[in-house]
Amino acid sequence: MSAKSGPTEKVWRDGVLVDWADATVHVLTHAIHYGSSVFEGVRAYQTPTGGAVFRLREHMRRLLDSAKIYRMTIPHSLDTLCDAVVETVAANELRSCYIRPLIARTGEQMGFNTKGVPIETFVICWKWGSYLGEEGMRDGVDVRISSWRRAAGSTFPTMAKAGGNYLNSQLSLMEARLDDYVEGIMLDTAGHVAEGSGENLFAIRDGVMYTAPFSAGVLHGITRDSVLTLAREAGYEVREMVMPREFLYIADEVFFTGTAAEITPVRSIDRISIGNGARGPMTKVIQERYLGIAKGELPDTYSWLTPVPVAATSTR
Questions:
Q1: Is domain 10-126 annotated with CATH 3.30.470.10?
Q2: CATH 1.10.1610.10 fits 134-294, yes or no
Q3: For the chain, where do the domains classified as CATH 3.20.10.10 start and end?
Q4: Rounded Cα–Cα distance for residues 251 and 254 (Å)
Q5: Which of 113, 183, 175, 140 is nearest to 277 (CA)?
Q6: Which of 10, 127, 161, 295 is catalytic?
Q7: Which residues neighbour 34 within 8 Å (Cβ) at sequence distance 6 or greater?
Q8: 127 catalytic, yes or no?
Q9: Is residue 234 classed as helix, strand or coil in its secondary structure?
Q10: pLDDT in tens, 5-18
């Protein structure tokens, strides 16, 4: 479930496409020592008319929001960053891939002080399959409630998608894997349901779809927003609500959302079967609608796809 594909050819680095092997930073890079980076996870999908990036502009806007929160000033506009993603995917002749835009404090200056520390922007892409597995997408995954809590908003900004924030996520995921679960579900500091280590979470009970509010320390997920839109389009009632842990055990359906995880059903939590222990009917509707639009198999009524020009002979 980590990226194991080989390197691609080009990486966008502050306006220049450089070779993969040359997209390096020094060992004293600020981000390596202090986690001072912000990033995005974006996907491009192969559609009948070629490659297309899903909700590109929203992802790049969130990247700039994260940078602003952490007082990282860059010379690139929203349009420039969107163009950079398209350019990078096209330069690597990819039709479907995972895309990692990254803004990092680099340089060779030690210490917490960020004054004078260089800030660099990168766009990297590579081929990557389903984060929680194709079988998990179809049949659901087994997860546990993590002993690690999501950090409070007064400790560091949880709305920013920052590198340092994900140390918290790593602890949750490592704990889950050591106990033979696929993923962990984190609670907030008050003990209410928050999200997975790298995914937002939805629960369904009696035909109503629930998800945690931002006050629970959850990320402002682009896929989460897409699911809220598609659920309302399908006529489902959706409520953003504080949820106690045990609410998940009695839910009819539970599923993760995220760029990497896409729409992944949860079939058990803490060895308690959710619903019938398989992908539920409402989850299936949302999953098929989401992937249908992303892959160009259904009309893109929300203009979520950004086409990528790729050579017609490319099969990558």
A1: yes
A2: no
A3: 134-294
A4: 7
A5: 140
A6: 161
A7: 105, 112, 164
A8: no
A9: coil
A10: 568 999 999 999 99
